[in-house]
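hi! just following up on the protien thing from before. the input was this:
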Amino acid sequence: MPIRRAATLLFLFLLTLLTCGCSITQALRVRDHERVDVQSMIADLSGSPVLFLGERHDASAHHELQLRVLEALKAQGKDLVIGMEMFEKVSQPALDAWSAGRVPESAFRKVYQWSWRHIPWGMYSDIFFFARDNHIPIVALNAPRGIVQNVAQRGFGSLSAAELADLPPDVDARVTDQFLNFMRGSFPSHGRSGDAYRHIAEAQMLRNMVMARRINDYMAAHPKKVMVVIAGGGHARGVGGVPAELRGNLDYKIVLPPVPPLDEESVTPEDADYLLVERF
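and the predicted 3d structure came back as:
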């Protein structure tokens, strides 16, 4: 076979792998480090009232996997709700209208673009359409961005009374030395010491705490629901993430993609129940 033809066929084969279907077919079951197929993973997840599905925001394979989990749970008859990092409480009326089918796509796109401006609509659109078509509620989880930015720049102690009133009452963005060490390992691009670094850590903790309180509050009001939480891998991680800030005995399971510094060698049961196996 001529070299040029062989190279063309190889390119087409790789392109097919990248563009066909859901490219994630296996996950590492962390408790015994066994690889299982996605269908088996979903069967194991289906008994928990809260499922954290971590992502890299710009990875389409992660969103395809999230949709597959939602479809499978819906087929099992679960009464679903989707919690999303991508939205703040101010967008909740628009989310409610979307899930009820009362708002056109063009208007909802504007809400999304205001909320999550750096990631294209198409990354999440299938999830949004699935929620709308099945009247599945979407819950805004994130802290107000202006408050997060202020904490990152000046620290939690700088917030005004009005800003504090816009947060759940028991959120204080406390950071321990253990959390600071976690941040140093997980976010090495930031500075590693001093007040500026502590302020960045407080902003991350603020988001974790607010998202956890939103989940707790919703599940307390709707105890028969199954919530699928869609959030970045750092927030979905058991260590240093939202799950660690949940209150009470709310049961949950965690699925993560490989996110630095986590990989198949370093992940522990405290981090996640499953780690996705990616082709590339």
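The chain is about 45% helix and 15% strand.
The chain has one domain: 47-277.
cheers
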